[in-house]
Amino acid sequence: ILPTKSKNDSSNSNIDNPYLTLGIVYQENNSNSRVNVKGKIVSYNNLYIGSEAKAENDLALAIKKGNNLTADDAYIKAVIGIINQNAKAEVNVGVEDNESTGNLLQATGDLDIKSDTETKINSTVGVQADLDSMLNTAINIVGGDVSSKININDAIQGGNVNITANHLSNGLQITTNNAFAETDGDFVNINNTGAKTNAISNNIKKVKNFVQGFINKKNNSNNTSNAWDQYFDLGASITIDDITNNVEVNVSPDADINATGVNGSDNAPVLNINAAIKIADKQIKTTSILGNKKATSALGVGAAVVIDNLTNNANVNITSDTEKPQLISEAGDIVI
Description:
Layout: E1 20-37, E2 41-43, E3 47-63, E4 76-93, E5 103-107, E6 110-128, E7 137-152, E8 155-158, E9 160-182, H1 187-191, H2 194-219, H3 229-232, E10 236-251, E11 257-259, E12 270-279, E13 282-292, E14 303-318, E15 327-329, E16 333-335
Parallel strand pairs: 1-4, 2-5, 3-6, 4-7, 5-8, 6-9, 7-10, 8-11, 9-12, 9-13, 10-14, 11-15, 12-16
């Protein structure tokens, strides 16, 4: 929590936010796992190759009203919680654009190639104030990029072949709460005092620029306005989630995949290629409570805003530049 100078303090303090109490928490979590297979591997039983990345964030931030508030309570209270979570798992078999070297991976039993990512986010941000707090704002931003990828660039063979890229979102819970009120009649005087109004506006601008800078970095843009921006000056509860999950399996033209059947087994061979995303639990809650002690109060605007942008992409890409079969399951099934 950044300190504030009392509204009645006329000293030459270096703190330039005498009308603002601000709490900021920023979390960044990067989890990366990569397996590169460039040499031949042969197993006379089962062969498993896997890459796994997990990321979990838990953020809690609050400004609460005290038991003995005075006239020195800040006009504006703002809390900003930001999570930037990234998880990447990748398996590369062979080298892209190189000619096939034969069966780079070979197993007489099961050949399993897996890429798994798992994420969990719990973010709770809240502000509660009383007296003459007039523009309290709670901002909760969650950004994330997830990638689970398998690239098959050379020939492989197994009794059964399973190639699976998965992502599990094991919880996405975002809660933003905002409550403010005017109880002593000072609001009109505050609003009509030029010096204080300018100071308040300057602090609001700084906070808005801070948040905008993060959003621009996340989206690789230089936009100066977003949907959340128009609500900031009202006193609001703002939730933004911008998460992209990409899961894919790529099979290059030089990558022949052959399921020959397991020796001694009566079961037909199976060649399975799968890309999947599972969202186990998603809950977004935003509230803005405006309370007035007097019916004649000048305070009368509050807003609760949710901007939800969750993008999921799951793809299996198989490319071939010849008429030769690229996927072969001898007397068995091919499942994509």
